[in-house]
TrEMBL record:
Pfam families documented for this protein: FMN_bind_2
Domain of life according to the entry: Bacteria
Matching InterPro entries: Split_barrel_FMN-bd, TR_PAI2-type
Residues forming coiled coils: none
Gene3D superfamilies, sorted: Electron Transport, Fmn-binding Protein, Chain A
Species whose genome carries this gene: Novosphingobium fuchskuhlense
Transmembrane stretches, start-end: none
UniProt protein name: Negative transcriptional regulator
């Protein structure tokens, strides 16, 4: 996390939107085998918990239940060239959104895993524009059950939210406008749009 308080945000709506839009993140844990990370689809529940699943053979699977873990979701990011500023004595930097969430993890039961998989696929299938949405009931039951035997569902109760929303909030309005135009010129449209939306 960047230490500048200007880049903090307690906006839980923004946090939820970042998780929902990205849908993917990393879960970190220190294990007896050393530090490990898993790259996973993530689902934020209405209760504010974070759900995900791992392959049975993942290096984290056997250590997560009852452990305290860190989950990270990254949003748009981009290099900010010093040439975009009006003042010559500036340095380059990096703008980004990142959300760290820390808390205890519990292993989900079979019904919870099924509900998680159904919710994740329903959420993302709604974004696919062509054809009918895929659902779990399209699979033969025995095959679906065998595949579910190979994964484990987890739920992280978020006790600490540590967001960084670094969008040049520490710069004057005219400098921010120059940065936005520079990002647009580089094709970093999502980051430019976030700068226009937040941190004014």
């Amino acid at each position: 996390m960047h230490p500048n308080p200007a880049f903090r945000s307690d906006d839980r709506v923004l946090h939820a939107a970042l998780i929902e839009e990205t849908g993917f993140g990393m879960v970190f844990l220190t294990t007896p085998d050393g530090p490990r990370v898993a790259h996973v689809p993530l689902l934020l529940t209405d209760a504010g918990t974070l759900r995900f699943h791992l392959a049975l053979g993942n290096a984290l699977t056997r250590h997560l239940d009852g452990a305290r873990a860190l989950a990270v979701v990254n949003g748009p990011d981009g290099y900010i060239s010093a040439r975009w500023y009006g003042e010559p004595d500036q340095v380059p930097t990096w703008n980004y959104l990142a959300l760290e969430m820390e808390g205890p993890v519990r292993r989900m039961d079979r019904d919870g895993l099924h509900a998680l998989l159904d919710a994740v696929s329903t959420h993302h299938e709604a974004r696919v524009t062509e054809g009918m949405p895929w659902t779990m009931d399209k699979m033969a039951r025995n095959k679906r059950e065998r595949m579910m035997d190979m994964i484990v569902g987890f739920e992280l109760t978020v006790e600490a939210w540590r967001p960084t929303v670094k969008l040049s909030q520490n710069k004057p309005t005219e400098e921010r406008a120059r940065v936005v135009e520079g990002l647009k010129g580089e094709g970093k449209l999502a980051l430019a749009a976030l700068m226009e939306q937040f941190g004014q």
